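Sample entry (314 residues):
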Amino acid sequence: MNKRALITGIAGFAASHLTDLLLKEGWEVYGTKRPRSRTENIAHVSEEVSGIVLCDITDAYSVRQSVLDTKPDVIFHLAAQSYVPLSWSAPHMTMETNVNGTINVLEAARLLEKSPIVHIASSSQIYGNAPLPFGAETLPNPNSPYDVSKLAQEMVARSYCKSYGLRIRITRAFNITGPRRQEFMAESSFAKQIVAIERGQQEYIRVGNLEATRDFIDVQDAVSAYLKAVELGEDGKVYIVASGIEHTMQEVLDMLISFSTVEPKVVVDPERLRPSETPRMRGDNSTMRELGWEPAIPLHVSLRNLLDYWRSQP
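Predicted structure, serialized as tokens:
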């Protein structure tokens, strides 16, 4: 019998790639999406997905019905408010989505006769200004409301694991990138703007802080880590999904430009600067390596694929 998965936020960036992977591995895949969410990320697999349920993760009733109707073996909880700058202008919505939405998923999982594994997709943002490298034992030091919401999400999930015996697997992913990456994320914004310049639609690239460093992981490597944590991980444990290599955002921008024939002017946009910034990020992925996982796709390949993705868009 095929394993059955429910992916919350199935039309999202990483969730759509996870859908591709699970279908390839023979899983029966269901997903939730908000009524207003766009579906182009999963249009190519629309006939292979077993069902997509309209569901707002903040609506406890619709979450409960989605879980009860699909009876999944595994819930991959990826639905989230994932844009850090938005968390300052919409902190209540960020907390409602990321924390209360997670509670709704966990409460629904408790109702199933057979307890599913619940994968919680957390974020390296919880570390904030903690000392490098960021690992499973590093104490969190969150900066933004988003960071706090993801840390709270983890703590709630672990409390359900301890109190109710729910089978929880937590991954903390670093900067996931690749095709279908949201255009408001820095490196995807760079790539989309380069394509606009190639097409003669704009003259220069608007950027934020180029001195910050980030640890990038290709989206295909990330979703393979999610599946590995579910299949081989331990209940209640945190798994770090990272490359272990840090790059400045200037390096990322330069790499993307090197894949193009244009030499655009770069302008710092004050609106792209955050009230507080995590200056450096580098992860210790030893917890994932213990499961036999390691990143396989280098950053230059991820960025070239991202640029080609935007070139393929109208």
